[in-house]
Specification:
The chain is 68% helix and 1% strand. It has 13 helices and 2 strands. The chain starts with 6 loop residues before the first helix and ends with a helix. It has 297 residues and is mainly alpha-helical. It has a two-stranded antiparallel ribbon. It folds into 3 domains: 118 residues, Up-down Bundle (Four Helix Bundle (Hemerythrin (Met), subunit A)); 59 residues; 89 residues, Winged helix-like DNA-binding domain superfamily/Winged helix DNA-binding domain (Arc Repressor Mutant, subunit A, Orthogonal Bundle), CATH 1.10.10.
Length: 297
C-alpha cells in the first residue's frame, strides 16, 4: 500500500517535480565540461548546474519505487543524495555519460532507504537479498503458475530461486516478510474490546529472585577467578588477562614480542596457567553445586 501525503506535501512535491523536469538537458560536451570544472577546479556553479539538470533522473527513480509504502518526498531526497554522491565520484576521463553513471547511484540510494525503512525488522542487505526484495513481486506476477491466491507455489519458488541465484529458503522467508506487515503492540485485539496485543505477550525476563541469585553467583564467580589468578606468576597472569580477560585479545605472536619469547613458548605458558586455574576452580565449583543440591533438598 503506497503512502499518501497530505495536500500541502503533495503540492510541494509537484512544484519540485515541475521545476526538475523543466531543467534543460545537457549536451555531452557541456556535461563533460561541467564535470571537469567541478572535479579539478571546485567550481560549485558547475556542480549545481550538473545536479539540477539530472534531478529528472531522481524523479523517475522515485516514481518507480513509490509503491513500497514510503513518502515520495523522502524517496526523492534519498535519490538526490545518490545524485550528489555520483557528482563527487564521477570521473570525466572515462568518457561515460554522467546520466548513465548517476542513475546507478540514485537507484542504490533509494533502494538502501527502502530496505532501512520498509519494515521495523531489518531486511537483509546482501546483493542477493536486495535483488530478491526488489524483484520478488515482479517475478511472481510474470512467471506463469508461480503463485496462487494463497502465495507462491513450490514450482514458483524454485523458478525464482534459480533466476535470482538464491536459496529456496530465502525466497520463502522473503515471501513471508512481504506478505505480512508490521503490527503495533498497542493494536486492539477486537473492535469492541479494551485489551491490547501486548497485554498477552509473555514476559521472558528473569524475576526478581532470579536476578538476585544471578548477581550473587556472578559476584561469587568473580571472587573465585581473582583468587585463582593470584596463584599464578606475574607473567602467567598477564598472559591469561591479555589472551582471555579483555575485550581486544592479542595473538600469541603479539604477546610473545611483548614478553620477549616465541609464540610457542607463550602457548606453553598459557596452557600451564589454564591448567592451574582449572585445578584451583574445580573444587570450588563442585562444593558450590553440592551446597545448592543440599539447599534444594
Amino acid at each position: 500500500m503506497a503512502y499518501i501525503d497530505d495536500q500541502g506535501t503533495q503540492k510541494a512535491n509537484l512544484e519540485y517535480i515541475r521545476s526538475s523536469m523543466s531543467e534543460p538537458l545537457l549536451e555531452r560536451e557541456h556535461e563533460a565540461d561541467l564535470a571537469r570544472r567541478w572535479k579539478y577546479q571546485g567550481d560549485e556553479r558547475a556542480m549545481h548546474e550538473l545536479v539540477r539538470s539530472y534531478t529528472r533522473l531522481v524523479i523517475a527513480a522515485a516514481a518507480k519505487y513509490k509503491n513500497y509504502g514510503l513518502p515520495l518526498g523522502d524517496l526523492i531526497q534519498e535519490g538526490n543524495i545518490g545524485l550528489m554522491q555520483a557528482v563527487n565520484r564521477f570521473e570525466p576521463e572515462r568518457e561515460v555519460r554522467f546520466s548513465t553513471y548517476a542513475a546507478w547511484w540514485i537507484r542504490a540510494s533509494i533502494q538502501d532507504y527502502i530496505l532501512r525503512n520498509w519494515s521495523i525488522v531489518r531486511t537483509g542487505t546482501t546483493a542477493a537479498q536486495k535483488s530478491l526484495f526488489f524483484n520478488l513481486r515482479r517475478l511472481r506476477s510474470k512467471i506463469d503458475g508461480a503463485a496462487t491466491e494463497h502465495g507462491l507455489t513450490t514450482d514458483g519458488r524454485e523458478k525464482i530461486s534459480k533466476i535470482l541465484g538464491v536459496r529456496i529458503k530465502d525466497v520463502e522467508t522473503m515471501e513471508a516478510r512481504m506478505s505480512g506487515g508490521d503490527q503495533s503492540l498497542n493494536a486492539m485485539l477486537s473492535e469492541d474490546g479494551e485489551d491490547e496485543f501486548q497485554s498477552f505477550l509473555p514476559d521472558t525476563r528473569p524475576n526478581p529472585e532470579e536476578i538476585v541469585i544471578g548477581t550473587k553467583d556472578s559476584k561469587t564467580r568473580s571472587e573465585w577467578l581473582n583468587s585463582a589468578l593470584r596463584t599464578l606468576s606475574d607473567r602467567e597472569q598477564r598472559i591469561i588477562k591479555e589472551r582471555h580477560l579483555q575485550y581486544d585479545t592479542v595473538t600469541l605472536e603479539e604477546l610473545g614480542k611483548k614478553l620477549g619469547v616465541s609464540k610457542e613458548r607463550v602457548r606453553q605458558l598459557e596452557a600451564r596457567a589454564m591448567q592451574k586455574l582449572k585445578q584451583n576452580l574445580e573444587p570450588r565449583i563442585g562444593k558450590h553445586l553440592q551446597d545448592m543440591l543440599t539447599d534444594a533438598a
